[in-house]
Amino acid sequence: MEIDIESLERATLDAVAPTTVESLMGWLVPFDSTTIGRATSAVPISHDHVDLASIAEIESQYTLRGYKAQYRVADVSGLSRIHVALQERGYTAQQPTLTMVGNVTDWFQNSGNWTVQLSQRPSDEWKAVYLSDDFDPVDGANRVRALSRSTCLMYAHLMDNSGPIAAGTGSFSQGWFGLHGFRTVARMRSKGCARSLIAELGRFALSKSIERCFLQVEDENASAIQLYASLGFQTTWRYHYWRKL
Predict the structure, then answer these.
(1) N or C: lower Cβ tally within 10 Å for the chain?
(2) In this structure, which topology does domain 102-237 adopt according to CATH?
(3) What's the pLDDT tens digit per position in 67-101?
(4) Are 104 and 208 in contact (CB under 8 A)?
(5) How many angstroms separate the CA atoms of 210 and 165, rounded?
(6) Who's near 213: CB < 8 A, 6+ residues apart?
(7) Checking phi first, is residue 90 left (phi over 0); if not, alpha (psi -120 to 50) or beta?
(8) Where in the chain is the domain with CATH 3.40.630.30?
């Protein structure tokens, strides 16, 4: 599958919904006060021929707005000069994360046995998963706020007799279907909850005639990567968040 980098990165920001996004010297530059790294870090819309002068200009724009500058840069040879320039300015590469792409039609051989509830708006049950005691309360609140204000999401959650147990979202933007914000409460992990959520969102994507899909997952999350690989996702690139300590 040929990857349109700009459309994928625009779709990513459409989903996590930073308060402001500007285009600057070949980068998308989001501005927001949130714990979601993708909503607070500048990302290039190409993997080559990025102007080195853009780094200082982006840093200046973040500073003017009272934010710390952050950059989300793929580990590819075409951006190696950007890596060096960031290091020279005191930034370090942190939080390695994979961008994976796939095709929705690969998801249904083993789609799980849970009954998934979909909604075009964030329900109280959906929010309850992020705000449960199993997750960081600040990060959970930030994700609820950001994902709730997105205009391109379908919300999915699972229930059992005790209440909400898993949640996630599917985004529909820029010709992509994206998976974002999947969470399962601790006692229900490894029981097929995420697989069921993904399959139901995939059925909805196919109803909209969208097959190509993407997600981002931290490199250390081996269990999630194994799940996504079993659904046909393949890594297209790894990126790091470049931040000053």
Answers:
(1) C
(2) Aminopeptidase (3.40.630)
(3) 999 999 999 999 999 999 999 999 999 999 999 99
(4) no
(5) 28
(6) 101, 102, 103, 104, 176, 177, 178, 179, 202, 205, 233
(7) left
(8) 102-237
